[in-house]
Write a structure and sequence with these properties.
By secondary structure, the protein is of the alpha+beta class. 15% of the residues lie in helices and 30% in strands. It is built from two helices and five strands.
């Protein structure tokens, strides 16, 4: 099956380890930094896990908190910015 002639689909999304506590295998500091923003920014589910169920696989992990390589969120109340770690994923179409 091909989508518009593509053989591979790629995407990036939030790293699922940013959504779980550090003691359960989460990324150090991710949840605490997000909670400091004082806003509900974590989704009710992991988009990475959903894409994995759809047949995508992680091809690169971006764990450094760098605004040029991660998602940047900004608190509306304080103006504080935080870079969320992300993953690059791909799915090979048959």
């Amino acid at each position: 099956v091909s989508v518009l002639g593509a053989k591979v689909l790629t995407l990036d999304t939030l790293d699922k380890r940013a959504l779980i506590p550090e003691e359960e295998g989460g990324l150090p500091g991710a949840l605490s930094a997000m909670s400091r923003l004082g806003e509900k920014i974590t989704p009710g589910f992991s988009t990475q896990a959903w894409y994995e169920r759809m047949g995508y696989r992680v091809i690169r992990t971006i764990i450094e908190f760098d605004p040029k390589s991660s998602y940047v969120i900004k608190s509306k109340e304080t103006g504080e910015e935080y870079c969320l770690p992300s993953v690059w994923m791909e799915k090979v179409l048959a």
